[in-house]
Design brief:
Length: 181
């Protein structure tokens, strides 16, 4: 008989208000039924949250479904390192839980996108245009590096790269290089 293989995937939602977690596990036919599937989510700035988890589907979380605020709130989830632990019962010998760590950068990405859309490349002279492009490329690489570091459990490096990207964005926004509309 094939062994149970637990896995979850955190999908990009391209907004800062929600988080999508997919159960990508393999549940072999004829295996004991899975009961009490649950997920622990460690959110930056909050205590660990424990929720029931639906198997073989996508679960969408926001600040309300995570129990952080009431249903009328429209609050963005914080950026930062998130840790997920998906657990099922009965406790299978090899594979009763799976852990994932990600760097959530949706708010930072929104800031990057806003800046990118404000840059009027057509109005810039060649030197300013090249510098703005170089700065944006550097920031983008820092964001991607932060994500890669978190995916590989290098949390300190992930946070350092995130802060550097955020600082560079703030500096670029405040600098008003002449390319902004």
């Amino acid at each position: 008989m094939a062994d149970l293989r637990l896995d979850i995937v955190i999908l990009p939602t391209y907004n800062a208000y929600n988080l999508a977690v997919v159960d990508a596990s393999y549940y072999p036919v004829g295996s004991p039924p899975v009961v009490e599937p649950s997920i622990q989510i460690d959110i930056p700035g909050f205590n660990s949250i424990y929720k029931d988890f639906a198997i073989e589907t996508v679960t969408i979380y926001d600040m309300y479904t995570l129990g952080i605020c009431n249903e009328d709130c429209q609050v963005k989830l914080p950026d930062g390192v998130y840790h997920f632990k998906y657990t099922v019962n009965p406790a299978y010998e090899d594979g009763h839980s799976v852990d994932k760590t990600i760097m959530r950068v949706d708010k930072l990405q929104e800031k990057f996108d806003e800046l990118f859309m404000r840059i009027d490349i057509l109005e810039c002279d060649i030197e300013i245009k090249a510098k703005a492009k170089e700065d944006l490329d550097s920031i983008y690489l820092l964001i991607q590096g932060s994500i890669a570091a978190a995916n590989n459990c290098a949390i300190a490096q992930a946070e350092k790269l995130y802060k550097k990207a955020d600082s560079m964005l703030d500096s670029l926004i405040a600098g008003e290089c002449g390319c902004f509309s």
